[in-house]
């Protein structure tokens, strides 16, 4: 024992002696080699204030997307060169020191500024990285900002082991010890801590990739996804100044570290920014929860669709399940499914206590740590529901208002000196309301000083509120065409897809005898902040602007609804249609009615004969479940020359004989009782969309040979439809054809060469026995639960096919080998096909493969060549034997499901970084890695949902965009 202590003491003495000797050498060398401490920076003082105050800014406010830090002599001409080019090619703006710094600049100041103005920092840590004091100073600054959550640090460990950064030996320690001979120990200690901090961050390891190009692709793809996520939210948050202070206040109320369930309210007047704050909260915090859901316009959706629909929507989003049709929206089920989950639920624009009682009845509905955020204009709603934590969104202060106004009026952060005083005078009239400030600024953009002064004069002198006046002045500054389009979008098409709206509006308003190009006017309206366009290309008009538009429509005609251009109120429509109100001619152009609960509307056969100007007719949600009906006991004899017809649950067997379709752009009769639309041919040259979904009595579709502009045809669940007319072959612009649930449909027309067809849905067409012959341009085919027996070898002609769904095809045999030649195929689902015995020989670009419940016995070793494979589901394959060792070559594999594969005895080797590995029900003796619990059924794995949702979103955006 004594010997051991003596030995230990000698070691300590030697260590102390070496340290003292090193410090003595420092001291002796001081006159010749002074310590270079001038590079030391105190980050909080050196970094501009914008970094401290504007964390997680929208992408548009960063100068660079990425700051690239590396040791030039190690990797500049090799790996970094390829990475830089790939990032640029992806449209990612990169700060690259030898390219972005101008000659003669103060280099360090330029680097600090560039780091400050970057959203991400990629640090390529190579063997020589720590030999450069510049690299270490960069790293120290970036590590500090990352710790403060002001910068996201992404390390790439290039031909090194991440653990080397923390060791007291090796090349990094050697480099730091050399630095200790020139720099003070505090500086080197800071560098050492920064290296250790980066070593603890999960990054990219070049040693785990066979090719550098593969690593470059992964980094670029990951960064692109993150930036896309940022830009997805930036459209909603870009215009709101002071967002970070809002977020700090809201996060303080949320108290995310607390394990309790908490509801908070965001309360304020219309146009103050409540929705923008709520969206920002959801985008920023959703990743911290098991599931998240944002419900917009709760008041309108609740009134239109009811509580059951809203609960279904909540559960669908939180559980990431698209299909919840078997559930009727009962609150008991919702509570049972959510009480064990930590969720984030955002309810936007609540105006009634009933909405909260039905959607978030009590805190016990949700699991520990859950947060419910509610926005409302009415504080009493929050108080009645016992919401304890309430954040009041107050008007902008004058400095914030000036910044927001300048962004729209001058396209810069602050006004020119000669315009500052006038800008402040205008802002004093706008009460700090962001919506009014944005609209006013956009209206005055590029206007001369006389216009500004006149604008201010009118704000000061009119009797109405300054905010209302500002909004109205912006409307009055529009030309005639822009005014009409704004009124139509605000009153008829709010929330609808821009492409579809523009097609209808082009024929709504004509200039002379020529159709209108409404997209140009829509762009102008967005520039003036009167309309916004979402990332999914939907048009949105703020509630205050919509109210203003409706007031304009009604002005001077309050007692004469038949003289208005648009009607949407039940009482007004009832008076015009049923009470025979008004003069000989009715001036209404658009009639939209969401039937209120318990109401009846009687329509006389000839009523529409007096509506010469009617262009849009929309009756919707008039189902008997709501206790509302539209009665036509004597039928209907006439419809005017409509541009848009949407009549949900239309009760007659056909459309009236006197109905001219020459100008018709959309025909939507979902869930109706029609058996046939019309007899003979109709002029359908302008028809873009036909939706007959759920018309279960429809026997045939009309001759569509003249509908050459038709883009979308929806015949889902037309259960009586036996065949498609041969006229379908003339639909040269048809992009989406939906025939799901057409149980009597036996086959698809032969040799239909629809060159534009991208999406075909035939799922649940149980009588379809043959694989359809399609154009090579098709991208998505869904044949789930059909009776097809084989996929022809000619499928390899479909060179653009990305998604093929064949799940539930009980008669389907093994796929042809030709499928291996389909390089574009990324998603193949063959689940519950019991006659599939061979693993499909798919191409190397496959990403998602579902083979659940098949009779496959083995997975070939070539599975290791599918380097892009992310998701593999073989659950329920009871004949399946152990997976080949080549599975570990799949670097991208994140989700592997083998539940119920009883013959699997060995744990499959994977490349790591797995998100989910389900081995329940296998014969593996020891399962050390966590698997999916049995508390809830494994409905759909998370990444599968991601892929599935991505496909569905892509399909939905291109096909069934509700109007």
From TrEMBL:
Residues of the signal peptide: none
Domain of life: Eukaryota
Pfam families in alphabetical order: LRR_1 (PF00560), LRR_3 (PF07725), NB-ARC (PF00931), TIR (PF01582), WHD_ROQ1 (PF23282)
Gene3D superfamilies: Helical domain of apoptotic protease-activating factors, P-loop containing nucleotide triphosphate hydrolases, Ribonuclease Inhibitor, Toll/interleukin-1 receptor homology (TIR) domain
Domain TIR per the UniProt entry, residue ranges: 62-227
UniProt xrefs under SUPFAM superfamilies: L domain-like, P-loop containing nucleoside triphosphate hydrolases, Toll/Interleukin receptor TIR domain
Alphabetic keyword roster: Leucine-rich repeat, NAD, Repeat
PANTHER family to which the protein is assigned, alphabetical: LEUCINE-RICH REPEAT-CONTAINING PROTEIN, TIR DOMAIN-CONTAINING PROTEIN
UniProt protein name: Disease resistance protein Roq1
């Amino acid at each position: 024992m004594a010997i051991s202590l003596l030995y230990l003491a000698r070691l300590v003495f030697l260590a102390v002696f070496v340290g003292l000797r090193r410090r003595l050498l420092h001291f002796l060398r001081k006159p010749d080699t002074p310590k270079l401490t001038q590079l030391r920076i105190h980050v909080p003082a050196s970094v501009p204030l914008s970094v401290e105050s504007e964390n997680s800014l929208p992408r548009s406010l960063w100068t660079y997307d990425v700051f690239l830090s590396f040791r030039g002599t190690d990797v500049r001409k090799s790996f970094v060169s390829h990475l830089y080019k790939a990032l640029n090619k992806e449209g990612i703006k990169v700060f690259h020191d030898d390219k972005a710094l101008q000659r003669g600049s103060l280099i360090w100041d330029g680097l600090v500024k560039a780091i400050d103005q970057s959203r991400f920092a990629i640090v390529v840590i190579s063997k020589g990285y720590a030999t450069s004091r510049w690299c270490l100073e960069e790293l120290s600054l970036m590590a500090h900002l990352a710790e403060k959550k002001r910068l996201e640090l992404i390390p790439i460990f290039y031909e090194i082991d991440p653990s080397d950064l923390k060791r007291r030996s090796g090349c990094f320690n050697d480099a730091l010890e050399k630095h200790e001979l020139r720099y003070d120990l505090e500086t080197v200690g800071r560098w050492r801590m920064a290296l250790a901090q980066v070593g603890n961050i999960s990054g990219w390891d070049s040693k785990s990739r066979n090719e550098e190009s593969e690593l470059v692709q992964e980094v670029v793809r990951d960064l692109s996804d993150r930036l896309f996520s940022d830009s997805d939210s930036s459209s909603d948050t870009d215009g709101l100044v002071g967002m970070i202070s809002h977020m700090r206040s809201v996060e303080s109320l949320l108290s995310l570290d607390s394990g309790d369930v908490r509801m908070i309210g965001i309360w304020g007047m219309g146009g103050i920014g409540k929705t923008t704050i709520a969206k920002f909260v959801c985008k920023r915090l959703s990743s911290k929860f098991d599931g998240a859901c944002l419900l917009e316009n709760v008041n309108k959706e609740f009134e239109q669709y009811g509580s059951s629909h809203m609960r279904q929507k909540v559960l669908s989003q939180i559980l990431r399940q698209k299909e919840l049709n078997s559930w009727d929206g009962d609150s008991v089920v919702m509570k049972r499914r959510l009480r064990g989950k930590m969720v984030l639920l955002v309810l936007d624009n609540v105006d009634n206590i009933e909405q909260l009682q039905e959607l978030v009845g009590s805190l016990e509905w949700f699991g520990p740590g859950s947060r419910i955020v509610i926005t409302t204009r009415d504080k009493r709603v929050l108080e009645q529901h016992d919401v304890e934590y309430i954040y009041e969104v107050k008007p902008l202060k004058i400095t914030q208002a000036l910044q927001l106004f300048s962004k729209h009026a001058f396209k810069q952060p602050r006004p020119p000196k000669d315009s500052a005083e006038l800008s402040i005078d205008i802002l004093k009239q706008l009460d700090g309301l962001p919506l009014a400030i944005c609209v006013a600024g956009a209206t005055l953009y590029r206007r001369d000083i006389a216009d500004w002064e006149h604008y201010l004069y009118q704000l000061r002198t009119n009797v109405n509120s300054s905010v209302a006046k500002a909004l109205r002045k912006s409307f009055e500054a529009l030309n005639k065409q822009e005014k009409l389009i704004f009124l139509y979008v605000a009153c008829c098409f709010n929330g609808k897809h821009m492409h579809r709206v523009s097609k209808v509006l082009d024929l709504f308003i004509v200039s002379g005898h020529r159709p209108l190009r409404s997209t140009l006017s829509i762009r102008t309206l967005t520039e003036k902040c009167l309309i916004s366009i979402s990332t999914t290309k939907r048009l949105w008009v703020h509630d205050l602007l919509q109210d203003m538009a409706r007031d304009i429509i009604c002005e001077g005609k309050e007692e004469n609804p038949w003289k208005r251009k648009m009607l949407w109120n039940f009482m007004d429509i009832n008076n015009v249609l049923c009470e025979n109100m008004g003069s000989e001619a009715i001036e209404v152009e658009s009639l939209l009615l969401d039937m209120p609960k318990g109401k009846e509307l009687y329509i006389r056969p000839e009523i529409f004969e007096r509506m010469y100007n009617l262009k849009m007719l929309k009756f919707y949600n008039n189902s008997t479940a709501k206790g509302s009906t539209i009665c036509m006991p004597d039928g209907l004899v006439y419809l005017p020359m409509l541009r848009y017809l949407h009549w949900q649950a239309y009760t007659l067997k056909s459309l009236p004989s006197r109905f001219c379709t020459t100008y018709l752009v959309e025909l939507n009769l979902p869930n109706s009782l029609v058996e046939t639309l019309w007899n003979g041919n109709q002029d359908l040259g302008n028809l873009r969309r036909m939706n007959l979904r759920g018309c279960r009595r429809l026997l045939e579709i009309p001759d569509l040979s003249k509908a050459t502009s038709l883009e979308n045809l929806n015949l889902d669940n037309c259960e009586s439809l036996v065949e498609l007319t041969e006229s379908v072959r003339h639909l040269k612009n048809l992009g989406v054809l939906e025939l799901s649930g057409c149980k009597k449909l036996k086959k698809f027309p032969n040799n239909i060469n629809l060159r534009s067809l991208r999406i075909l849905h035939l799922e649940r067409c149980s009588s379809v026995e043959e694989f359809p012959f399609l154009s090579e341009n098709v991208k998505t085919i869904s044949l789930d639960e059909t009776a097809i027996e084989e996929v022809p070898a000619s499928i390899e002609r479909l060179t653009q096919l990305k998604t093929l769904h064949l799940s539930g095809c009980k008669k389907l045999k093994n796929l042809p080998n030709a499928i291996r030649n389909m390089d574009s195929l990324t998603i193949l689902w063959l689940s519950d096909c019991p006659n599939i015995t061979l693993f499909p020989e798919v191409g190397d670009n496959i990403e998602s493969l579902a083979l659940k419940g098949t009779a496959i016995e083995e997975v070939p070793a070539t599975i290791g060549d599918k380097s892009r494979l992310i998701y593999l589901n073989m659950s329920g394959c009871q004949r399946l034997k152990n997976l080949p060792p080549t599975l570990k070559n799949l670097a991208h594999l994140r989700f592997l499901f083998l539940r119920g594969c009883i013959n699997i005895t060995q744990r499959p080797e994977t490349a790591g970084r797995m998100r989910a590995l389900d081995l329940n029900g296998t014969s593996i003796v020891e399962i050390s890695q966590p698997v999916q619990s049995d508390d809830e059924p494994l409905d759909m794995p998370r990444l599968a949902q991601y892929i599935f949702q991505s496909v569905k979103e892509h399909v939905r955006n291109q096909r069934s965009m509700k109007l």
